[in-house]
């Protein structure tokens, strides 16, 4: 090989590498810069090295590199309540002028008085009433637009950030790192599948077809000669706890080799993942950072973490101590 | 650019092209060699050229190039009855020694006497009994193995081929052609999702997570310390007719730009696809070849094609006349 041929080799090799990484120049340096050099980061890197090294006994072909992520409290924040609940409360206020009867009907009356605690004290029944009033009886396209519009303007009461700016920077890096290593990344969340899909591709790089979540039933019909899907007031599937492995099997049809969660709602997903043959990786994000984020676990109504933490110790899963293991929590702000 | 640099450019350009096409050398020649040069082939090529040409007003970004395919009668044959029904009948015979009561219970008694017509005369109720007896009350992993074992040995009564050798060669080429042009190919079938997933990746190049189908409910539980998913005797979802757009929305979360079917069970999927904005492609396979395959449409109990054919004419969808438009039906045999 003469000198200019060799030069050309390296130029085009570099181009191939850049192309294969979706146009982004590869950092030969640290792929997880927002993670401190503590043990969780090392476990992640070791696992990825192990399953991607050809010839290694633990090598996993790319098609089987399935990684599933919980959303609330794992990829974005979930305090003081699930962001989808805040969305529902906001929608009740927006829709109230068309529903004068809500002034005297619970849970709506409390919501309109700004008394969220009383509104939610009705438990599941109250929540279902609110979901029905705010998430159903419109087409899938109309709901997509409502969610998109809300996210474009709503701000978190404590941080003043847009909700999509309350995603975790270390987890964004982790998603990108796994994908750069041939993993296919999925969301498997108790949150509404149609509430997440309008924005997960832009924010997480996860396309709609890789989002698994809870859902209500929809109905196909022709309206004014145009086919539409109408969102009904009937639950279809709850993608939480024992529902997560069911949802994974239904949507993905193979068992993940890596799973990431933060609460007891993720326990069965992690158990299902861990029980497969060959190398497995399970991780829990433990919310320990009251200063930069929130600190909660056993006594929290959202992101309740108790049994899964016990199981993590028993099975030696990786537990992220947010305060000590993350250099940065949220992405740097643009505004 | 000197001469050897230019030479290196072409060598590495070729390598990139080969790499991007998954290791297979690109045929600059005909990507659809089993299609005659009749109008359906031309419509396919025109559509693909149109949506993939950067700068064209009809350009569609790769992420949105979703193509959905029916399975029975569209990707593989479906006569003299759906292959999954043949599987169920075979399973009844295999399981019969453990069920002496079947000798006097319908539809099992008729199946065991070899009288399929009487067995199926019980309609949906009889079918459900057989599905329950043959598809449920085992783990998802056990069912996967049963399907795999059956496909490895069972042979079609008329052709003597394995069922996975009764796929349509022109459709295999079409799947590969679309994927080489940045499309993501999905199956959307009335058939059982767990009946298809064990073999679609190997046969069609479609991974489990891109298979949408009908399903029964599953239940997560820990058995002897090991988490399993048990298949229940309760229907979960029928992915047929108006269920197809619902299934597409549930699994994929975006509207296809191209859809392929062969019966009235595909009508709503094609309507849903056609109604989106921008360029759309809808195709029906019309079974017109009694010699090489089967000829049937309006009067057939499987693959009933009537309303969809009328709609295809009204909306100018592409209709494949199998006899005239396909050079070859099945892949050349290996054995």
Structure description:
The structure is a homodimer of 335-residue chains. By secondary structure, chain A is α/β, with parallel strands linked by helices. The first copy, chain A, has 2 domains: 198 residues, Rossmann fold (3-Layer(aba) Sandwich); 71 residues, no CATH class. Helix content of chain A is 41%, strand content 16%. Chain A has 13 helices and 7 strands. A 7-stranded mixed β-sheet of chain A has the order 4-3-2-1-5-6-7, sandwiched between helices. In chain A, β2, α9 and β3 form a beta-alpha-beta unit. In chain A, α3 packs across α6, α7 crosses α9 and α10 packs across α11. The longest helix of chain A is centred in the N-terminal third of the chain and has 18 residues. The first copy, chain A, is globular. The N and C termini of chain A lie far apart (52 Å). At the A-B interface, α1, α9, β3, β4 and α10 of A face α1, α9, β3, β4 and α10 of B.
Quick structural summary:
The structure is a homodimer of 335-residue chains. The first copy, chain A, has 13 helices and seven strands.
Features of this protein?
335 residues, alpha/beta, Rossmann fold, 2 domains, 7-stranded mixed beta sheet
Topology of this structure?
Two copies of one chain form a homodimer.
Chain A: H1 3-20, H2 39-52, E1 66-69, H3 83-95, H4 108-112, H5 116-120, H6 123-135, H7 140-153, H8 169-180, E2 184-192, H9 193-204, E3 211-223, E4 226-237, H10 243-251, E5 258-261, H11 267-274, E6 281-286, H12 307-315, E7 318-321, H13 322-325
Parallel strand pairs in A: 1-2, 1-5, 2-3, 5-6, 6-7
Antiparallel strand pairs in A: 3-4
Helix pairs in contact in A: 3-6, 7-9, 10-11
